[in-house]
Amino acid sequence: MSLELRRRIFEQLDQLVLIDPHTHINPHAAASRTLADILGYHYYTELAHSAGMPRQEIEEPGLDPREKVWRLVGYLPALRNTAQYSWLVEICQTFFGLDDADLTPDNWEAVYDRAQQQMAAVGWEAEVLRRSRLEAVFLTNEFDDPLEGFDTRRYIPCLRTDDLVFHLAKEEVRRRLERASGLEVGDARSLRRALACLFEHFKRKGARACAISLPPDFTPRPVSPARANTALAALRSEGPAAAATHRQAIGYYVFWTLAEMCDLFRLPFDLMIGVNRNVYAAGVHQGRDLFDSRVSLLQYQELFNQFPRVRFPISVLASVTNQELTSYAWIFPNVIPHGHWWYSNTPTFIEYDLAARLEAVPHNKQIGYYSDMYKLEFALPKFAMYKRILAKVLAERFVIDRGWSETRAVELGRQILRTNVETVFRWGEDLSQELPDLARVEPLSPQGPLGPIPAAVALAAEEAATPLLGESERLERLPEEPPREFVLPVPPEATADEEGVEPASPAPASSAGEGGPPQSLQLEEAASAPTEGEQRASESLRQTERWPPWPDTPSR
Amino acid sequence: MSLELRRRIFEQLDQLVLIDPHTHINPHAAASRTLADILGYHYYTELAHSAGMPRQEIEEPGLDPREKVWRLVGYLPALRNTAQYSWLVEICQTFFGLDDADLTPDNWEAVYDRAQQQMAAVGWEAEVLRRSRLEAVFLTNEFDDPLEGFDTRRYIPCLRTDDLVFHLAKEEVRRRLERASGLEVGDARSLRRALACLFEHFKRKGARACAISLPPDFTPRPVSPARANTALAALRSEGPAAAATHRQAIGYYVFWTLAEMCDLFRLPFDLMIGVNRNVYAAGVHQGRDLFDSRVSLLQYQELFNQFPRVRFPISVLASVTNQELTSYAWIFPNVIPHGHWWYSNTPTFIEYDLAARLEAVPHNKQIGYYSDMYKLEFALPKFAMYKRILAKVLAERFVIDRGWSETRAVELGRQILRTNVETVFRWGEDLSQELPDLARVEPLSPQGPLGPIPAAVALAAEEAATPLLGESERLERLPEEPPREFVLPVPPEATADEEGVEPASPAPASSAGEGGPPQSLQLEEAASAPTEGEQRASESLRQTERWPPWPDTPSR
Amino acid sequence: MSLELRRRIFEQLDQLVLIDPHTHINPHAAASRTLADILGYHYYTELAHSAGMPRQEIEEPGLDPREKVWRLVGYLPALRNTAQYSWLVEICQTFFGLDDADLTPDNWEAVYDRAQQQMAAVGWEAEVLRRSRLEAVFLTNEFDDPLEGFDTRRYIPCLRTDDLVFHLAKEEVRRRLERASGLEVGDARSLRRALACLFEHFKRKGARACAISLPPDFTPRPVSPARANTALAALRSEGPAAAATHRQAIGYYVFWTLAEMCDLFRLPFDLMIGVNRNVYAAGVHQGRDLFDSRVSLLQYQELFNQFPRVRFPISVLASVTNQELTSYAWIFPNVIPHGHWWYSNTPTFIEYDLAARLEAVPHNKQIGYYSDMYKLEFALPKFAMYKRILAKVLAERFVIDRGWSETRAVELGRQILRTNVETVFRWGEDLSQELPDLARVEPLSPQGPLGPIPAAVALAAEEAATPLLGESERLERLPEEPPREFVLPVPPEATADEEGVEPASPAPASSAGEGGPPQSLQLEEAASAPTEGEQRASESLRQTERWPPWPDTPSR
Predict the structure, then answer these.
(1) Could you tell me which of B138, B510, B419 has the C-alpha nearest to residue C77?
(2) Dihedral Cα C421, C425, C429, C434, nearest 10 deg
(3) pLDDT number for residue B456
(4) Which of A242, A379, B291, C360 is the most exposed place for a label (fewest CB within 10 A)?
(5) Mean pLDDT value across chain C
């Protein structure tokens, strides 16, 4: 009974047209050109290498695509058990006429040829999207991407910020930032302005998210402009050889500023938490990163508290972090579980993690899945894997264990597969003209001490093993608006077209006092409440702030 | 077959009359008065808030109960997937005549009215207990609770000690302690005496446990009276502004003393491990706490070793700690897995954690479940959820996977649902007169240096980042009795009524030497063995020490 | 359907003749002599003790075997739920004619007598092996085991090295090392030479692995000979009272040298990661160890990178580390998941951990199971437990969820149960004469500063809380060969008998630069490439390096 039930639920979920909320698609070459683009995906190269294939065989310069596929096919037998291999077979069966259960030395050439033929056809890209039932695909764009030459309604820009946070010590990255923003980045103030320029550019081009991947020990915190200036000066003179404290200080400064920009520009901030880069330095391209599962979302406590209006779709790399993600999403309105990432994107982990989320996180704030793909052909098998597991969990844990109707189970599936992508990323709204008051982009007080910090203090900072120096200087920061709660209003008699507006209410003083800045700072802040103009600008922003209500929310 | 089997096992488990070994029931208002008491449970307010409901809508001062329910009902659709919501529906269906699958804007008023009517009826409280098949309910009492005005055979007092360990820096807490004990708490000695008074009071009133919840970084250790005196002096003069080392030192001193009192007064010490308080400061009441899953029971190594006679029913907040709990319970006689707590109290985590425990921990020392409820109506759906999962695990992993008979599976369920609650908390024994020799309550050597520690040493303590200063002073502590093993005798020819007595055997010297106090201390201890009087007092205590044998333990 | 399918798969897996790749069998007394050898297994004594049995009852000196069994049988009822108890019953049913479902006070004596009779029979040992379908059994040998007097083709020596890494401060251990090697161990150089002697001895006697168990905080790193000399001098003069930094430094020096020897002698290095010894000091023999689940394989990053030719079969103690093991094995060619160890060796953890591995790690590099047994009779029920779970996972997750044929599922089971044990440990090859060029065993530069380190520096080392002092001295280390990748060639037209040879390729410079030693060291290394002689020796070694290809790897 259960298997039949699973099948029926899957078939209904499989009819949905989806938006893929996180991929690495290149919109100028979204689909594959040969089977080597499929088999060259790092999942196959790294697994083949792990199973015994020398890296040199894979990454030989100038390697012909057909030769590359031939070499990799020789190692596929060792991967037949993996979930990743099952995606490959499903692609070949669905798109390229493979009839067998495996891609083998005997049949690979026919598949290669058929694939090449299909991929060369006009409309292959559209065909893949259509057969995959994909309406749109989120991208991962370098911060200096011009975002030109592709349809930004189908391929949704997303501002990826890893380089800004982790590699600003590299002159090349600072140069790219200066070119992209048209500003010289000489101090914390201009750095902030430059970041605002990126957001404005991306927003105008239709971006719907800002994103970053973070190592396990990352613990975001505010850094004062003065501390940032000192760090930036060190980076400009010493580059990547600058003291780790300076590189960390600027990283935290940029990260915190990005969160402020997400708030101002009203973009969700996708956090992908837990990756250590280059752990296996001799590995194949993109097959070198691993993780340390000892990470806690408690590290993000201050961030979540300070940015109640920013939505944080969060991916965790280790399944053992999934309960924390589940619990934090159950408590924090702005924490949104987001898909099943990378090393947790295999059936056993998905099944367990998904079941835990479905039982404890309100269903209007969890995003089921994204493909993370580099080539369009992968959406179909990856989403199919997810939908089969989702159907299994819905059948076993909701229909059977809890007595739900099939209809209700399918509706829950639709909610996390499609509806929440729409609401979290505000699908259907034109956001390109929704830009903040410039005065709020640059709130640095002109009279604040912006450094450089005296040499002795800077030295102490260099010697300290911590980037917390800036904390003693928080008083120099300009007063922020009091944080507001993140509201998902359910307005009276609302319809999809004429929803009311519900202003966010300031958090009460009692709550701001706990876990927030020290007492003296609060007084300082209280003394400089937003001006009337700022208040208006903010409220004007709120005019469009809304979160589509849950479909069957009762009118009141 | 499996579903039918699960159903049959559930139905047998569902017939059991239970004792709920941990709740937050107020015995003066145990049942709800309106549906707002049900919907006001933090699980609903925090989930509704997480799903988009502003805190102000929930916590508006003077809010009418009916209005509160009406507001919350509007957000329930977003929670329909959660396990917590299923408890609500089961309550409304079982007790208040709800026929629908959901509580909705269309039907809530009828349910509200029906509930109000039922709750106002004479005997509603007894009715709920009867229909929930609950014989007794453990409470969570503030340490200064007079424990008057309720039936302590139905509502079992439990001494909750969080304030004493974590908030003794607050003058109000010290005042409460002084009022409750009738003693001035000026130094470590009087603090210890005051704690003993609380235990005596609670024990006389029928208390069967001492309990505390602990943050992930808590690592209990002994603190010398001299160090405690120094810390207490700082707390008395500076209050919560006292250095963290002093606050920690007094916390560890109090905690260790509580464990000593549990030993002397023969009370289990319920440890609820892993909660960080106030992580989301702007959250709703009781909806602000979260956790860091990076915690290990290794932090409790010294505690478990030093108190072999104290039973520690242990709850862990994170499911990833469950394997440690399982393994520590498999090795340590005094470690007892206790229910499924809070963020781990959802079906997927329960199922996995329960299965792991059932396979590896002797069944006479695991307590299946407690409701943690604030209002009586919640016992029924929470225990029902647990029993369904228990039936599933017994059916799938014992009857099917291991070929057990249904009878045997049900018996295992009964053991962890009911029998072990009886044995661990010594149900059926009158403990109110079982009080220790006063000389043993206060073992501080009069000639020991009890501080205050000289200013320079105190300063060093303040500056140190660790409360371990006291460790160098352990020599000043009065000799303790050698620890004894925790025995669960299986006496020859025992029957339930005429069990023999088996004195605990002192641990052999070789074991005391490992992991125990340093060599010099041992000599010191050896030099001051218990006097004959102490020995008698101790043996008199042992007269009633027993652990009901496993029902089918063979006579020998 | 699923149960029948599981049964069929199990029955096919159960026909396989296996090699048990990790046990604690004493080859001079491999089988039990009385039932007390079975019931005296620490799983039963520690569980009985945890359930209430005083340690003294179990460990009374001179206790008669029959009396011991009688005492333990009285506590068995409390363990009936455990997986460990099920092994006992299966042993008694299979080998000793037990007809009942339990071993009880009523039937134990008959079982005891029958067991005694069987065990006394000539050929009992061979009979157990035959009925357990075991072809060979890996041992755990003390480093000074003469390895004489038993059939090393059936009982495979394995060099266990815990004492060398963790207890070299004990004079007795150093003495044993000197006796076993015939060398005086006075400095780092002679210590290295002595370790090489052990490897040569073991290799000549047919050893196929080196093994060690490691605590959670172990983080292997290279230590310079100079630092090791200083540490060794301290150990020789102070013994176990030497500063922790010295004990750690020598531990890391020995460990790293063992890895180098595994490389030179081409032995897999079994790492059993995560055990804390003596946590419950008053526990029964072998029932005192537990763990801290906060451990990461990231701690082994440098080891895995520096020894690409060494195969590391890895066991983790905590199931929460299993995803890291899975992911590291998916990325690192030399990381091999190895069985289900100790506290993770119960069905729920095995099922979850196994499923995760089967979905993500190439199937030619995971070893399903080992028994860890002390007496031969335990292989049968332990492997049977594992095979039942394997059959369940294959049935549910491969045949049902992924549409695999039964044949294919069984083949995957065979691969991880048998085939990979053969390939990882090079079954069928005579390794006893495969010894490295002696010049490569002792690569210490005669002109390198080998200590002792000046007193002031040594003092600083003693005071430091870290063993990292040696890191600043890495320049003194002799140049190593550039690391090579671990290759599992799939040669063209290979057959089982006439496989080609594929030399390992040196890692490209770009990869060696990341995560590797500092720049200056690299220059040093580049300046002293292997001599022609060394090169030849190395290539001669490679002549026999091969990894049998996956059976159905296509010829190319």
Answers:
(1) B419
(2) 180
(3) 52
(4) A242
(5) 85
Q: What is the ipTM metric for this complex?
A: 0.84
What's the rounded Cα separation, in Å, for the pair C273 and C213? Answer: 6
Q: Is the Cβ–Cβ distance between C81 and B358 less than 8 Å?
A: yes
**DSSP one-letter code for B241:** G
Chain A contact present for C546, CB below 8 A: no
pTM: 0.85
Please tell me the distance from the alpha carbon of residue B235 to that of residue B242, in angstroms, as a whole number. 6
Closest CA to B232 of B164, B160, B144: B164
In C282-311, the residues whose Cβ lies within 8 Å of chain A are 294, 296-298, 301, 304-305, 308
Residue C370 confidence (pLDDT) above 70: yes
Q: In chain C, which residues have their Cβ closer than 8 Å to the Cβ of B356?
A: 346, 348-349
* Pairwise CB contact (< 8 Å): A324 & B291: yes
Give the closest-approach CA distance of B346 to chain C in angstroms: 18
Cα nearest neighbour of B321 on chain A: A320
Nearest-by-CA chain A residue for B49:
A333
Question: A395 falls in which pLDDT band (50, 70, 90)?
Answer: very high
Whether C467 and C256 have beta carbons less than 8 Å apart is answered as: no
Distance CA A62, CA C262 (A): 37
User: With contact defined as beta carbons under 8 Å apart, do C219 and C294 qualify?
Assistant: no
- Could you tell me where the DSSP H helices lie in A35-75? 35-39, 42-50, 55-59, 65-73
Alpha-helix runs per DSSP H in A292-362: 301-306, 322-331, 347-360
Cα distances from C509 to residues A42, A123, C505, C523, in angstroms, run 21, 43, 12, 11
Rounded distance between C-alpha atoms, residue C27 and residue C157, angstroms: 10
Chain A adjacent subunits, 3+ CB pairs under 8 A = B, C
Q: State both tokens at C64.
A: 């008669």
Instruction: Say if strands C275-276 and C158-160 run parallel, antiparallel, or are unpaired.
Output: unpaired
- Name residue C160's amino acid: R
| Residues counted in chain B | 556
Q: Does residue C439 contact residue C537 with C-beta atoms inside 8 Å?
A: yes
**Do C57 and C40 meet the contact criterion of CB atoms below 8 Å apart?**
no
- The partner residue sitting opposite A74, judged by closest CB among C321, C328, C490, is C490
The number of beta carbons lying within 10 Å of the beta carbon of residue B225 is 26
Element (H, E) at B179: helix B171-181
Q: Which residues of B touch A555 (CB under 8 A)?
A: 105
Number of inter-chain CB pairs under 8 A, A vs C = 159
Q: How far apart are CA C89 and CA A316, in angstroms?
A: 43
**pLDDT (tens digit per residue) in B67-102:** 999 999 999 999 999 999 999 999 999 999 999 999
Q: What pLDDT, on a 0 to 100 scale, did the predictor assign at position C1?
A: 62
The rounded Cα A108 to chain-centroid distance in angstroms is 35
- By DSSP bridging, strand A275-276 and strand A290-291 are antiparallel
User: Tokens at residue C354, please?
Assistant: 């196994």
pLDDT at A513: 33
Query: Å from A104 to nearest chain C CA?
Result: 8
Q: Which residues of C touch B327 (CB under 8 A)?
A: 290-291, 343
Least confident among A45-49, A539-543, B311-315, C415-419: A539-543
Interface of C with A in 78-97 (CB under 8 A): none
Quote the DSSP letter at residue A365. Answer: G
| Residue C402, token pair as written in the block | 């992924």
- Chain A residues closer than 8 Å to B320 by CB: 320, 323
Q: Which residue has the tokens 């671990």?
A: C486
Q: Note which residues in 354-413 of chain A have CB less than 8 A from chain B.
A: 355-356, 358-365, 397-398, 400-402, 408, 412
Looking at residue C156, what DSSP letter applies? E
Mutation test of the interface with chain C: which of B300, B319, B330, choosing the one with the most C Cβ atoms within 10 A? Answer: B330
